[in-house]
Write a structure and sequence with these properties.
single chain, about 150 residues, Conserved hypothetical protein from pyrococcus furiosus pfu- 392566-001, ParB domain, 4-stranded mixed sheet, 4 strands, about 35% helix
């Protein structure tokens, strides 16, 4: 059971670290996901469009989250860079019922932003060292120059 006097319940650290079952570590390492603790619930925006067809708010499920609250599974909600809810409509509804004013979030970059980041990364390709013989010759040449001097 949760403490009814609290206005914030921190998610377990494992949900906010680089390696988590929320997604591969790749998403964290590339900067596509970042964790932010104690975000005001009023800051979270809700766009009904993504939820219209596939996932309506189930009030009984929300009641279950509240009545059988377990900190071990209290994972952060996911939002985009503008704090529009991406995943976690039941958790945020439960948080409001519990009287929380703050919640942990994971900020997810949009697919367009990810594409832009990948394009930038691909501009900086490492030098081509496929010809190792040529590279070794050049290293030896430079070493010999140093000896002569």
């Amino acid at each position: 059971m949760y403490n009814r006097n609290k206005n914030y319940i921190s998610s377990p650290k494992r949900f906010k670290q680089k390696i988590s079952f929320l997604g591969s570590s790749f998403m964290w390492e590339r900067g596509y996901w970042t964790a932010e603790e104690k975000v005001e619930i009023n800051k979270i925006k809700f766009d009904k469009l993504p939820y219209v067809d596939h996932c309506k708010l189930d009030k009984e499920y929300v009641k279950g989250i509240v009545s059988d609250f377990y900190l071990e599974v209290w994972e952060p909600i996911r939002v985009n860079d503008e704090y529009v809810l991406v995943d976690g409509q039941h958790r945020i509804a439960a948080a409001k019922i519990m009287g929380l004013k703050y919640i942990d979030v994971i900020i997810c970059k949009s697919p367009d932003e990810i594409d832009k980041l990948e394009e930038e990364r691909n501009k900086f390709k490492p030098p081509d060292f496929m010809n190792l013989k040529q590279l070794n010759r050049e290293i030896n040449r430079l070493k010999n120059l140093k000896k002569v001097m």
